[in-house]
Fold:
Amino acid sequence: MPNFNTSRIPAPESASEFEKIVNAAVQIRWKGTVFQRYGRPGQQQDGVDSYANSGPEVGIAIQCKNTCHTIPLTVVQQEIDKAEKFKHPIKLLYVATSQPNDRNTQDNVWKLSRERESQGKFGVSLLFWEDIISDLAKDIPTLLSFYPILSQNDNDTKVLEELKSILPYNGSIAFVKSHGFCRKIFDDSQLNQLYIFWDRCDDPAFAFQNENLERLKLQLITNIQKLGGIIGQNYTRQLNSHLIERHQLQDHQITELNNELEIAADNLLNNYNRLLSPRT
Structure:
């Protein structure tokens, strides 16, 4: 699915705008569940800004904290105390924050949540800005409604530049072009950039809006999987080493294997070149 690189999207300064973004994001996260903003500014909200009142995840409550500081556990506890007075059943309270992920806060909140659930009370969890904006970025029209400054070309340019940074020509791609794996033993670390790129593509935000670019990117992943699969089936890693060694094969089998590797490599290179020069 086409998406934006979320690492460059800032949180809003307005608390009201932050609540709107969070409400939109959670409806994308929990599809089929209807979340409604609870009350309006000036009304007592009992620690709940958005509430799932229908759908499969009914009972999830969201409290929004647009803050320039990391949320301490005391603030989370204060929001829990307020939510205890909420008039409707809560199965899980999420505190949504505009701050980046923080391990210590996560550990403390998870511990607190387990203690509460063991007592039959609703649990509590966190939604950090990375979580919120990643969910929002799964729906381009919704994202653009909050961030109209983002453009398709701007997004695709940034994704392409990151791709070039992760997978430069003079690294693993050059090794693939040289068919350096068509030998009995070779250094598998020469292919690391391919695997790093593959892992990066697991992030739904690392995607092109342009359908042709996204199709080429997905095809490149398929090419990497194909090449890696052939190598994995026919080579064994030496103990405590980056070196991998070809299985014992007869001469005609080696020839067939090398042909298969070269075809897979050439397909990979063709898609890489087309991705960097999509007009071809």
About this structure: The chain has a mean pLDDT of 88. The two ends are 23 Å apart (CA to CA). The chain has two domains: 6-146, 152-276. DSSP finds ten helices and eight strands in the chain.
